[in-house]
């Protein structure tokens, strides 16, 4: 059986040689690059520039030629970088309702909104407050989170606290204050 496999392998190699495959010194298939002079190879080497095709907002006419998936990806990225007004202006969308309908049709995820619909209540938590907890380990562990967090971030914080305290024999004093931010 081993001899049969070896024979099939050798036949395959011989057929490739007949077809014109040449093996380079590195063991791969030989390409035109392999037979070029070093000076010609150096001419081919250039600086590589990387850019994101979604980086700038494209005109409405060009946007309309894209597929629905491309439109969704573009709008999702643009909303992280630009304001809705800038996007609406570039895409020539006249109203907030038209823009919302476009987002809904394409399935673009909505931005998380903080805020209350109950009236004008002053913010008590600064949005610029540190998102990193203050940690004090003097005479025990003390964590303090001060900031404005969305529901996903709160879930992560609570999960971290659970992992931190899991298996500990000591009891912990916990004070939780949750206010809706505007």
What's a concise summary of this model?
The protein has helices spanning 2-19, 38-44, 60-64, 68-81, 84-91, 96-106, 151-165, and strands spanning 134-137, 141-144.
In DSSP terms, counting alpha (H) and pi (I) runs of 4 or more, how many helices? Answer: 7
Summarize the helix and strand pattern as letters: HHHHHHEEH
Strand content: under 5%
The structure class reads: mainly alpha
Can you give a write-up of this model?
The structure is a single chain. With 182 residues, the protein is mostly helical. Residues 116-131 have low confidence and may be disordered. It has helices at 2-19, 38-44, 60-64, 68-81, 84-91, 96-106, 151-165; strands spanning 134-137, 141-144. It folds into two domains: 37-111, no CATH class; 114-182, no CATH class.
Give keywords:
single chain; 182 residues; mainly alpha; extended
Write the layout of secondary structure elements.
Blueprint: H1 2-19, H2 38-44, H3 60-64, H4 68-81, H5 84-91, H6 96-106, E1 134-137, E2 141-144, H7 151-165
Antiparallel strand pairs: 1-2
């Amino acid at each position: 059986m081993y001899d049969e496999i070896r024979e099939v392998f050798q036949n395959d190699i011989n057929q490739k040689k007949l077809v014109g495959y040449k093996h380079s010194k590195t063991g791969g298939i030989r390409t035109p690059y392999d037979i070029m002079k070093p000076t010609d190879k150096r001419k081919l080497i250039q600086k590589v520039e990387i850019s994101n095709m979604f980086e700038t907002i494209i005109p409405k006419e060009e946007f309309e030629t894209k597929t629905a998936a491309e439109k969704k990806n573009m709008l999702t990225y643009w909303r992280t970088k630009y304001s809705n007004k800038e996007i609406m202006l570039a895409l020539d969308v006249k109203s907030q309702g038209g823009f919302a309908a476009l987002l809904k049709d394409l399935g673009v995820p909505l931005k998380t909104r903080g805020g209350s619909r109950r009236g004008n209540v002053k913010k008590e938590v600064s949005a610029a407050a540190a998102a990193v907890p203050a940690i004090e380990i003097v005479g025990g562990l003390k964590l303090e989170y001060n900031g404005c967090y969305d529901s996903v971030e709160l879930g992560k914080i609570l999960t971290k606290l659970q992992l931190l305290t899991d298996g500990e024999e000591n009891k912990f004093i916990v004070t939780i204050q949750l206010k809706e931010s505007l």
